[in-house]
Amino acid sequence: MKLAARVSRIAPSPTLAMTATAKAMAAQGLDVIDFSSGEPDFDTPEPVKAAAEAAIRAGFTKYTPSSGIDELRQAIIDKLQSEQGLRYEKAQVLVSCGAKHSLYNVAEALLEAGDEIIIPTPYWVSYADQALLNDATPVFLPTSEASGYAINPDDLQRLVTPRTKAIIVNSPCNPTGATYDRKTLEAIATIAVRHKILIISDEIYEKVLYDDATHISIATLSPEVAAQTVIINGVSKAYAMTGWRIGYAAGPKDLLTAMGNIQSQSTSNPCSISQKAAVAALKLGGPFTEKMVVEFDQRRKVMVERLNRIPGVTCRMPEGAFYAFPNISGVLGRKGPTGPITSPQELANHLLKEAHVAVVPGEPFGSQHHIRLSYATSMTAIQRGLDRVAMTFEKLSA
Ligand SMILES: Cc1ncc(COP(=O)(O)O)c(C=O)c1O
Q1: H-helix segments, the chain
Q2: Fold of 62-284
Q3: Position in ligand 1 atom list of the atom nearest CA 202
Q4: Atom of ligand 1 nearest to the CA of 97
Q5: 290-339 pLDDT, tens per residue?
Q6: Which one of 39, 201, 237 would you pick to mutate in the ligand 1 pocket, going by the greatest count of ligand atoms within 8 A of its CB?
Q7: Residue 200: pLDDT above 90?
Q8: pTM for this structure?
Q9: Architecture of the 5-43+288-395 domain
Q10: Which residues line ligand 1 (CB under 6 A)?
């Protein structure tokens, strides 16, 4: 069959693919330790489940308005007003089937052939492929591990062309766990406003922060910046609701109207029951997430400390999200049973085969030097998994 050319430009999500492989191996009875999955290992909070049950019992099981129910859009408006001090009308808010879908709606509404979107590296896997699916060109803005993955405004300025349509801001960042400070956000905003570039601010990990890290939404810098920013967020990470598929976007009315039209012709409304559940989640506010973050914090410290003890591995302490992103350059080049291991992908394959440990290689995040391990898993799994990683690396010969 002759498929559309755009399909050949993309690959399946490598994180989802690795998680699926790990699950399939576990289903065969293998003792797999899965560090690949990007979801909290906590159960969805009880009040959220109760709201979903009540929705089912009340027969709230039909189509809803395509852009989301008023109650949820209002809850999102209230959240953005009370937590960020941002004001949006209903027409500026769209509820979608997860933040990934919200991002896809932005890409489809905004991008055309020849358009460019600036993506700081390392980046979350779907940004580039969503641009490619919409015939646009991802333009990568390299950042360095040594600088804590900070954006250099001069580097950003140099990448701007008349075809630049958007820049991605993802703080806290998946995979690096880095956060942007006010100065960095101001520098990005100045360039974006000067060149009329849309800022796509993916704030899905806004509540997963450690030590004294804070989250600043770039849209709060000024009304002018807000007018040029679309905020992407959702309930997946903060409320352990990855399977419920509710995300949202808030931003300029013309963009959001276009995204709503796309959604009405593609998916229609996100699941009615999940929307009711998301209202309950947003009403929970901070305490549920704070409890999770206390646990993530303990696991973060153990995972990073143990990774740093492995010869050839160095790992920066992440400030947010729930991923360690160790640099494994010192391990690359060592020999395994079938010859030298020369890339993060080969190392990830080796770990899965030899140690039954699933990690995501750095390549799809834009790095040839790292692998990503999620610490949203039990402390026991972290300890056992890192024993295996250390032993497996030790066995590789120089
Ligand atoms: C940075 C980032 N943005 C967006 C998403 C999508 O989240 P969801 O579609 O589950 O709401 C993820 C999920 O892993 C993510 O890591």
Answers
A1: 14-27, 46-57, 70-79, 99-110, 126-133, 153-159, 182-194, 223-226, 253-266, 272-284, 287-309, 344-350, 379-395
A2: Aspartate Aminotransferase; domain 2 (3.40.640)
A3: 3
A4: 9
A5: 999 999 999 999 999 999 999 999 999 999 999 999 999 999 999 988 89
A6: 237
A7: yes
A8: 0.97
A9: Alpha-Beta Complex (3.90)
A10: 38, 98-100, 124, 170, 174, 202, 204, 234, 236, 242, 247
